[in-house]
Specification:
By secondary structure, the chain is of the alpha/beta class. The protein has a domain of 197 residues: 2-enoyl-CoA Hydratase, Chain A, domain 1 (Alpha-Beta Complex), CATH 3.90.226.10. Helices cover 39% and strands 13% of the residues. A seven-stranded mixed β-sheet has the order 1-2-3-4-5-6-7, sandwiched between helices. Strand 4, helix 3 and strand 5 form a beta-alpha-beta unit.
């Protein structure tokens, strides 16, 4: 077991931290070993064609380490590099990690995905779309082989597009209030449907629709935590021990849960209406309560439990 001491980064904001800062604070001190580090210069071969700078790790960090003594594999997207987008090299690094744990029972049986992505990199669209499909398949195959895959979402880019789909294939999803997730990002909706349909500059609207609190209340995430590295570490530890079997019974139970959610919330036109439908007293207060009060609220809301998935 490694030295589990953690530094002052415990109190650092997950939202504001870089991918490497998150990993440094999340994992036990000195336990992280990176695969294909920046010194290997595994960079995108395409960005130079668009006169864009590349990154030596292509915005994807993969490796292994320990979480309070538990061996884990990790992959972290750098949301500050091209929005953490999926592309040829970054996708291949993640797919390779997932296929390795699928095939090698000697590797740690838990994978932590620190998602921070707006989706596919437009400059590498075909390769990025293929990468997302391969990642999702690799997660499903890893889970079928007995691997736990946990998505941690709380960065600037959130988890949209391919990242949102990827999160949905994981064993468990952890979100902070600042974390957002969905299939289509607010800016994309506004661009295609107009500001009348969705105003991406209306932050209250964006967070009420895609933010961590709304997702947790409707059962779109399995755990909610505060915006610190320490909070994400504790949340990850908590969900690692309550992962359902990946079998037909689990999938059938999840289908029943989702059908019930559509029946109950499908006619709602806003997050506030959904919260009211969930019988939350003074639903407007959800936005303003502190994390401790919100966690207590979730415990009493029917439908927020996501253990079926």
């Amino acid at each position: 077991m490694s030295d589990t001491k953690h530094s002052a980064s415990d109190t650092a904001s997950w939202f504001l931290s870089t991918a490497r800062e998150r990993l440094a604070g999340l994992l036990d001190s000195g336990s992280f070993t990176e695969f294909l580090p920046p010194t290997e210069r595994a960079m995108s071969p395409h960005l130079a064609l668009f006169d864009l700078p590349a990154a030596f790790d292509d915005g994807m960090i993969v490796g292994r380490g320990e979480l309070e003594g538990h061996e884990v594999l990790v992959a972290a997207q750098e949301g500050q590099f091209m929005g953490g987008t999926f592309a040829e090299v970054s996708g291949a690094k993640l797919v390779g990690l997932l296929r390795a744990v699928r095939d090698d029972a000697k590797l740690p049986r838990t994978v932590l995905l620190l998602l921070d992505s707006g989706g596919v990199r437009l400059q590498e669209a075909n390769a990025g779309e293929l990468a997302v499909a391969e990642v999702m398949r690799a997660i499903v195959e890893a889970r079928a082989a007995g691997v736990t895959v946990i998505a941690l979402v709380g960065g600037r880019a959130g988890a949209f597009g391919g990242a949102g789909l990827t999160a949905a294939t994981c064993s468990r999803i952890v979100l902070s209030e600042q974390g957002r997730t969905g299939v289509t990002g607010p800016e994309v909706i506004e661009t295609n449907k107009g500001v009348e349909e969705f105003d991406s500059q209306d932050k209250a609207l964006v967070w009420s629709v895609t933010g961590g609190r709304s997702r947790r209340l409707i059962g779109g995430a399995d755990a909610y935590c505060g915006d610190t590295v320490a909070a994400f570490r504790q949340a990850a530890l908590a969900v690692m021990d309550r992962v359902p079997a990946f079998d037909l019974a689990t999938l059938q139970a999840e289908q029943v849960r989702l059908a019930a959610r559509v029946k109950r919330l499908g006619a709602c036109e806003s997050a506030a209406q959904m919260w009211s439908a969930l019988a939350i007293p003074d639903s407007q207060s959800v936005r303003n309560m502190d994390d401790e009060a919100f966690t207590a609220l979730v415990a009493g809301v029917e439908g927020a439990d996501h253990d079926a998935r």
